[in-house]
Design a protein that fits this description.
12% helix; globular; mainly beta; 3 helices; 232 residues; two-stranded antiparallel ribbon
Length: 232
């Protein structure tokens, strides 16, 4: 069995976590791009969403994660019972998440569904792969918001599509892989081709933002619907 060695060292993140809502049971935050969700095994990767929040909210735990380069909405449990209740909602797929993204090129269809199983391969780490044989089911929906051309610093322009992405499953790198599979990787994605177009190789960040989150408050039973616009 292959041993996975993670050599990634996260650069310092000066952006602060924005707390959008808090009560005795949970927090709703806006995670900045370029911050780990959880601290890594390497002591140089100590800084993370959890590391920062636990200083202020002892006992808090992450219910779900966002990739290092992804910004946006996260719900954080303030105790184990709330964590269990929220994790149950995620496992039952009753939590709805919507992401905003900029994709390279112009998508032809205005909307569609990508149904492609995703597998983990230690030999490819940190990459995941589309694999119909060994992959776990993965399904994403997309809807085009706008198609446009963006002027770059060097004077050239690049064709981009702004989309809303709705993952129906929660596989690692799912949205990035599914967009690459369509032939339109997420702008700024260093793993799956989002920096290959001329002029995009120095894009400042991964253009993926968790913009909507819907779930039921475990204590009040209230339907929580949160929106946070993408910063790009």
């Amino acid at each position: 069995m292959s041993t996975i060695i993670d050599t990634f060292i996260a650069p310092p993140c000066d952006d602060e976590i924005e707390t959008l809502y808090q009560d005795d049971h949970l927090l709703l935050i806006n995670k900045p791009a370029g911050l780990l969700s959880l601290s890594g095994k390497n002591p140089q990767n100590l800084d993370s969403v959890h590391y920062r929040l636990v200083q202020q909210f002892p006992g808090c735990t992450l219910v779900h994660r966002l990739d290092f380069g992804t910004s946006g909405l996260m719900v954080v449990a303030r105790n184990k019972a709330i964590n269990a209740a929220l994790c149950h909602q995620f496992s039952q797929r009753t939590v709805s998440k919507v992401y905003s993204a900029l994709l390279c090129g112009h998508l032809e269809a205005d909307e569609g569904t990508i149904d492609a199983p995703i597998a983990k391969d230690p030999a490819l780490f940190p990459l995941m792969s589309i694999c119909p044989i060994n992959g776990k089911p993965a399904r994403s929906r997309y809807q085009v918001v706008a198609r446009f051309a963006q002027q770059l610093a060097d004077g050239t322009s690049v064709q981009l599509t702004r989309v809303q992405l709705t993952p129906e499953t929660g596989r690692t790198h799912q949205l990035r892989l599914h967009c690459q599979l369509m032939g339109h990787p997420i702008l700024g994605c260093d793993l799956y081709g989002g920096r290959l177009l001329p002029g995009t190789e120095h894009t400042s960040r991964l253009m993926l933002h968790a913009s909507e989150l819907r779930f039921v408050h475990p204590i009040s039973g209230e339907q929580i619907n949160v929106h946070h616009a993408a910063p790009f």
